[in-house]
Design a protein that fits this description.
By secondary structure, the chain is α/β, with parallel strands linked by helices. It is built from 11 helices and 13 strands. It has one domain: Spore Coat Polysaccharide Biosynthesis Protein SpsA, Chain A (Alpha-Beta Complex). The strands form 3 sheets. Strands 5-4-1-6-11-8-12-10-9 form a 9-stranded mixed β-sheet. A two-stranded antiparallel sheet has the order 2-3. Strands 7-13 form a two-stranded antiparallel sheet. The chain is globular, with a radius of gyration of 20 Å. The protein binds 1-O-phosphono-alpha-D-glucopyranose. 1-O-phosphono-alpha-D-glucopyranose binds at residues 113, 133, 135-136, 173-174, 194, 206-209, 233-235, 264.
């Protein structure tokens, strides 16, 4: 188990249609919606790169050209900023282009998250890799991905991230039944269910959008039947690996207690922006007193 190479690849599924944000996402990918001053996807790519995953594969679809453009150089804009001597904005522009080695592959049919991950098979090869879902932002001050990578290196199987949610909210997530592992700060996953009803949920532990997976998941995804919502679910493939035996089987989980922001629907997207803007060095100090005054008027 210790002989495997260091994990260097991250897969970011970004082929979703963004229907919850229509009409804003009619001609623009939802991953490009700004969270304060950076598109949501930039936070996710930065998180991967900070955890040492400098090879990033984005699974995109139609109308996603803006994603590629965002992570590409814009010589005319850079030249313009250089001529103006605007070093600060030049630094911000370079932030998105100096991030790792970004590759793109298109998911031809939106057949679900499991199918999107399967599109990464060729690029990933036979090594463990991470998957980061673009709707979930993890605060850069809180550690998650590198802990999960360490657990994968120790256990050899796949690793998911779980977070406690209010029991009535569990049906928006994959849900896990877990048991403790002696002398360790991760748990063993016994069973996974994608978006169970509140009554059938085995716990209030929700799957959040970070995974470190053994490549055996590809074999499983190749025969995973469409599940919830008639989509090929990653959760179903991981349930099969949790119950399997032998090389690459087993699923463990890190329980995350830090700050996670969900940008996947309108309300939580706005909450994410406000939460991050309060700490923003340029506007935080002015936003906070304004927010307090504004709250008084409600
Ligand atoms: C996906 C997964 C789900 C997980 C969630 C986390 O669902 O299928 O298991 O809990 O991401 O954000 P989605 O939100 O894409 O419907």
């Amino acid at each position: 188990m210790t002989s495997q190479k260091k994990i260097t690849k991250a897969v970011i599924p970004a082929a979703g249609l963004g229907t919850r944000f229509l009409p804003a996402t009619k001609a623009m990918p939802k991953e490009m919606l700004p969270v304060v001053d950076r598109p949501a996807i930039q936070y996710v790519v930065s998180e991967a790169v900070s955890a040492g995953l400098s090879d990033v594969l984005m699974i995109t679809g139609r109308s996603k050209r803006a994603l590629e453009d965002h992570f590409d150089r814009v010589p005319a804009l850079e030249q313009n900023l250089i001529e103006k001597g605007d070093e600060e904005r030049l630094r911000l522009v370079h932030e998105a282009t100096g991030l790792g080695d970004i590759h793109y592959v298109r998911q031809q049919d939106p057949k679900g998250l499991g199918h999107a991950v399967l599109c990464a098979k060729q690029h990933v090869g036979n090594q463990p890799f991470a998957v980061l879902l673009g709707d979930d932002l993890i605060d850069e001050r809180d550690e998650l991905l590198s802990t999960m990578i360490a657990v994968q290196e120790q256990t050899g199987g796949s690793v998911i991230a779980l977070m406690e949610v209010e029991p009535e909210n569990i049906s928006a997530y994959g849900c896990a039944d877990v048991s403790d592992v002696e002398d360790s700060d991760y748990v063993k996953v016994n069973r996974l269910v994608e978006k169970p009803s509140v009554e059938d949920a085995p716990s209030n532990l929700a799957v959040i959008g970070r995974y470190v997976l053994h490549p055996r998941v590809f074999e499983v995804l190749e025969h995973t039947e469409p599940g919830r919502g008639n989509e090929i679910q990653l959760t179903d493939a991981l349930q099969e690996l949790a119950a399997a035996e032998g090389e690459g089987s087993g699923v463990h989980a890190v329980i995350f207690r830090g700050r996670r922001y969900d940008t996947g629907d309108k309300l939580s997207y706005l909450q994410a922006i406000i939460t991050l803007a309060i700490d923003h060095e340029e506007i935080g100090e002015r936003l906070t007193p304004w927010l307090k005054d504004f709250a008084q008027t409600l």
